[in-house]
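Quick log. Single chain, no ligands specified.
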Amino acid sequence: MSWPTLQQLRYFVAIADSGSFGVAAHEQFVSQPALSAQIKELERKLGVNLFERTNRGVLLTTNGDEVLKRARVVLREVVGLVEATKHDGKRLRGEIGLGVIPTLAPYILPDIVRSFKTMHPDADLRIFELKTNDLFDSLRRGEIDLGLLALPVFSDEFLSAPIAEDKFLLAMPSNHELARTQSPLKLEKLRGERVILLEEGHCLRDQVEQVCQLAFSEPSEIQATSMATLAQMVAAGMGVTLLPECAEKVEAGPGRGIVTRRFAGQSPSRTIGLIWRKSWPFAEMFTEFAEQVRKNKRFAKTVRG
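-> predicted structure:
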């Protein structure tokens, strides 16, 4: 009997989770024909049909449901096997995957990488820019080991540690009426403003919407695909936005056509933190790393201005 490969099992689980061959192929960075061929080969090796193909997607057969349960166990054990080799007693070594959300990666990643390499010089840190839900999925599958994102995380699968509080600033065109004052602004000043958001899928969008609700402000239907695009739209006079302080120097620096102002009182903010799987065998290493980042004066200056 020929045995299923780990790759075939990963593809199978990805299809079962997404309900689509096309989505699974995209997530696994493989063409759909290649993925379909591997699933056919897996079905041939097991001697059963794993999926029922419908116009709306795919459904697991009874046999497929049983294989899925066992495939998850196998893949978890393999992840555990690999993780057990990433430690020499004091430091991490080998390849460590770090997932970072797009609204943090361009601004604080250099400080994070420097701190990590200082603590674990023998580790090969691989960076993946992922939206929040994709980061969670990659952690679950063992494709990355550590995540850098906005907290809190509502899942008992992961452990987390906050590393900084990132305040929101009001970013507006340089000729905006509110740009005339240097004083912090009350949150109620958002009322009546066209607040531009990031597109769906970015957790920052949800956070800004929550702030708008506090200010009884209705966000604009205009959306941006990235922080850089968002800043350019503000500079062009299309509206205002809430800019994380960590992004201020990059996106609202001199000559960018954008003015930022702090909010009076308790400024709205997001908590930046690290997360990892609860099953990670060397969790204390990530806890110590988070503590080291919190003490990093250069990192604190980047986030808190």
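The domain at 6-83 is CATH 1.10.10.10 (Arc Repressor Mutant, subunit A).
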